[in-house]
Structures are given as C-alpha cells and as structure tokens.
Write a structure and sequence with these properties.
This protein is mostly helical and 216 residues long. The protein folds into two domains: 56 residues, Arc Repressor Mutant, subunit A, CATH 1.10.10; 145 residues, Tetracycline Repressor, domain 2 (Orthogonal Bundle). It is built from ten helices and two strands, in the order ααααααααβααβ. Strands 1-2 form a two-stranded antiparallel ribbon.
C-alpha cells in the first residue's frame, strides 16, 4: 500500500527545525573543542575527549566534521566570526568614506586580535600545537571564508564596483591582516593606516564611480 502523502511530504517547518537542531549540535561540538583547549595544545586533544565533553558519540562528531582537520578549521572560522562581525560594523559606520572604512575595519580587527584568548592560543603555538597551520600553511579555507565576507560587505556599501576587483581587494586585505596578526611590527592603529595608504590608489580607482550606500 502506498505511503500517504501526508506521511512523506516535508514541510518548510520540518526543514527549518532540522537545520536548527543541526546548528545547535555543531555549536555544542565546537564549544566542547574550545573547552578542551584550555591549557592544552590541539595535538593533545582527542576526538574521543571532545565527543565525551559534548555528551555525544565519537561517530556523531565524525559525522558532523569528518576529521580533526575539518573540526579545527571549523573552530578557527567560528572564533573568527567575532572578528568579521566587528569588521563589518566598522565598514558600515564609515560607509560614506571607503578609505576611512577600511582603515577602521583593519584597526578593529588587529586590536581585537591582540587581546583575544583564542588568538593568543594560536600565536603561542611553536608549530607543534597543531592549530597554527590553520592560519598559515593550511589557511586556504579560512582565507576563502573571510575574503567572501569582506567582499560581500564591500558590495553592500559600494555597489557598482567590479565584483572581480572587490574580491581581489578583499583577499588582499584579509591576507595582510592575518600576516600582521601572526607577526606584528607596529600597533594596530599604525598598521591599519600603513596598509590603507599603500592600497589607497587601487581602492580609489576600483571605487571610482561606484555608488555609495547611505549609512543606515
């Protein structure tokens, strides 16, 4: 006998609920991973310990992230979201002045990075802790994610700029910002001004004629 349609048809509410449950699980696992890093290197933390801390099976953890590298990347990106939120706010606060906006965004990013406990954990890694490569030699997923967010924010505020140029600018800004976090030479304010001044001619040329969004 055919199964009644009402028993097999998925409603939008069902999909939304399952998505919310999956996101809650993901956050729970990332919280557990972050907790296990208190006073320990990433290489000392096992997937079994993270799963136990989250109250799930090790298979559930692997089903969600695949392997340790994917989990580590997800953790770095999740922690990096706080930085990107601050960057997007800084750009929005100076939407009528692109150079000021990017300077403020860089300064805010670098300032937060100097005091953030998770960043300190990454930077205190001597290369044996296991997380530092995720922002250096194995940083492609992080760079791609951050660049897309920065490019999206630029598009919102300065429509009319050529998308390919915006993506190049976003990628350049992200790479420079991360390099200055991992090996700082000046204070955040000075570093942000130096980077913006260096890129100013290209930024102005790229945004020439682009429509400026009015600050909300």
């Amino acid at each position: 006998m055919p199964t009644p349609a009402s028993a097999t048809t998925e409603t939008p509410g069902d999909s939304t609920y399952r998505g919310a449950v999956k996101q809650l699980l993901r956050e729970r696992l990332l919280d557990a991973a972050r907790e296990q890093l208190r006073g320990r290197a990433w290489t000392q933390v096992t997937m079994a310990e993270i799963a136990a801390s989250a109250g799930v099976s090790r298979q559930t953890l692997y089903n969600e992230f695949g392997n340790r590298e994917e989990l580590g990347q997800a953790l770095v990106i999740r922690e990096g979201s706080r930085f990107m939120d601050a960057v997007e706010r800084a750009i929005g606060e100076h939407a009528d002045d692109p150079l000021a906006a990017l300077t403020a965004a860089l300064e805010r990013f670098l300032t937060i990075a100097t005091t953030d406990p998770f960043v300190r954990l990454l930077l205190d890694d001597d290369g044996t802790g296991g997380l530092l490569p995720l922002v250096t030699t194995q940083s492609r997923p992080l760079l791609d994610w951050a660049s897309k967010r920065v490019a999206g924010t630029i598009h919102v505020h300065w429509s009319g700029a050529v998308p390919a140029d915006v993506q190049v600018l976003a990628d350049t800004l992200v790479r420079l910002a991360i390099s200055h976090v991992t090996a700082p030479r000046h204070r955040p304010t000075q570093t942000a001004a130096i980077i913006t001044q260096l890129l100013a001619p290209s930024i102005e040329r790229m945004l020439d004629g682009a429509e400026m969004a009015s600050p909300s």
